[in-house]
Amino acid sequence: MRKTWKKGTALVLAAALCAAALGGCSKKDQTVEAKPVYSLNGESVDADLTTFLLRYNQAQIDEAYGVMMSNYYGQSIWTMDLSGSGMNYELTFKAEFADELQRLMLAEEHAKDYGVEVTDEEKAAIQKAAAEFMSSNDEETLAAMNATQETVEKALTLYTIRAKEQKEMTKDVDTEVSDDEAAQTSVSYIQFMPTVESEAEDFSVELTTEAETEADGAQTEAETAAFETEEEDKTSSADETEALFQTEAETEDPEMAIAREKYYAMAQDALDRIQDGEDFDTVASEVQALGTAGVYVSTFTYGKDAEYPEAEIRDAVEGLQDGEVADSIVESEDSFYILHMDAVLDEEATQERKDEIVEERKQTAIDMVYATWMQDETWDTDTEALALIAMTDRVYNAPEVPDTEALTEAGTEAEAIAETEADIAAQTEAENIAQTEAE
Q: Which of 34, 98, 166, 367 registers the highest number of CB atoms within 10 A of its CB?
């Protein structure tokens, strides 16, 4: 039976480790005595520390994505080849963890280079947080993680040193970012994605019997009429969209041809209403409220070098001013779009991008330092010992209701430091994977 883990008071580095009560489901006969796995310059990295950090990171991945991936794909995240590299995620995760652990060790080794040391106040906070962690967990869970007061304190000390050190590494990074470099555009859209699984609402447009017959394979003049507007002075963009639609309709299966006609008609009807003076947001809300499958309302936010959304969409809104709507339906990725320019320069999104660029510069500076250090170091892995730390069984469950106690003063300060560095490599990788799968 799996128990749950609940978050407690924050530790000195909230982004790296939180004081949590972890509920374990591992059995005593599953616990393997920790053996040295990694060594730096011939000296073994503490085995208990390695196992503790690896297991804790496992718990974070399981909490954030394990259940979701298992429910969606019907198998453990650790057995899946999420990267397409031919390796299951357990091996990918362990490889990333090794890099993370090596950086922690190197940060400790070079602490004096940056004048970094752990203060008495920080030591006291670390001891308190470690004690809370130990007292919050049962013996079975602690044994599964090879967790002791000393081990947890060591882990927190390493994270504290690294955070302070990386703050020094990045203190000279340029934090000025121009609007031109970070500029973000926001475009709202109504998407009509044809689907044959639903009976699409036709709004005010009726399909002709001839058009339905054409969908079965016999091309008629009625099909062209179904897609032409009443205006004779259509723009070239509208001509291209209609021509493409007709060409695809000639070759696709009959049911999809009918669906495309219906969804195009819905899109045209909604665009007509907007062009007749109705508010875009009002029309979008009403269209969405119908609950038609394949009809979505959302927003694209992108910069000048963006590859998403597709070029057809970016080109269609080029030159629009705030509040304007593209004058014709845009087809992209098998969907029809009505596009509304929210903001040519979205100030909030632009500021967020500026912050991201600064963080990217800082991470680049940090990576360069570690890369230089690693050239002069020897890092070895005992693959047999690493294989004994199996991750295919989910050991922990996330809490239903996390404890949201306020951070201590030391914790708050350290959390701010942690924001200057990327999250734990394994966790970051899993977030990227989850986002890619969601898209």
A: 166
Using N-to-C axis directions, what is the helix angle for 149-169 and 347-375, rounded to 10°? 110
Which residue's structure tokens are 């002791």? 148
Q: How far apart are CA 40 and CA 48, in angstroms?
A: 16
Residues with Cβ within 8 Å of 111's Cβ and at least 6 positions away in sequence, in order, are 117, 161, 165
Q: Which of 39, 80, 48, 84 is nearest to 61 (CA)?
A: 80
Q: Which residues is 297 bridged to in the sheet?
A: 190
SS3 content of the chain, % helix, strand, coil (to 5): 55, 10, 35
Binned at pLDDT 50, 70 and 90, residue 295 comes out as: very high
What does the alpha-carbon distance between residue 332 and residue 344 come to, in Å, rounded to a whole number? 21
**Average pLDDT of 59-80?**
79
Residue 36 preceded by cis peptide, ω within 30:
no
Task: Compute CA 185 distance to the chain's CA centroid, rounded to the nearest angstrom.
Answer: 20
Can you give the C-alpha Rg of the chain in angstroms? 28
Which of 35, 96, 105 has its CA nearest to residue 378? 105
Packing angle of the helix pair 409-418, 120-136 (nearest 10 deg): 100
DSSP class of 137? S
Least confident of 150-154, 246-250, 373-377: 246-250
Phi-psi region of 277 (alpha: psi -120 to 50; beta: other; left: phi over 0): left
Highest mean pLDDT among 133-142, 327-336, 407-416: 327-336
The whole-chain average pLDDT of the chain stands at 76
Q: Which of 144, 184, 136 is nearest to 52 (CA)?
A: 144
Q: What is the spatial distance between Cα 85 and Cα 95, in angstroms, rounded to a whole number? A: 13
Percent of the chain topping pLDDT 90 = 51
**Residue-wise over 316-333: b if at least 16 C-beta within 10 A, else e?**
bbeebeeeebbebbbbbe
Longest dimension (CA), the chain: 85
CB atoms < 10 A from the CB of 117, how many? 11
Asked if 188 and 340 count as a contact pair (C-beta separation under 8 A), the reply is yes
How confident is the model at residue 74, as a pLDDT?
Answer: 75
**How would residue 250 be classed by pLDDT, with cut points 50, 70 and 90?**
low
Q: How far apart are CA 137 and CA 310, in angstroms?
A: 50
Enumerate the β-bridge partners of residue 190: 297, 338
| β-strand partners of 301 | 186
The continuous run of DSSP H or E covering 430 comes out as helix 425-438
Block residue for tokens 């927003």:
299
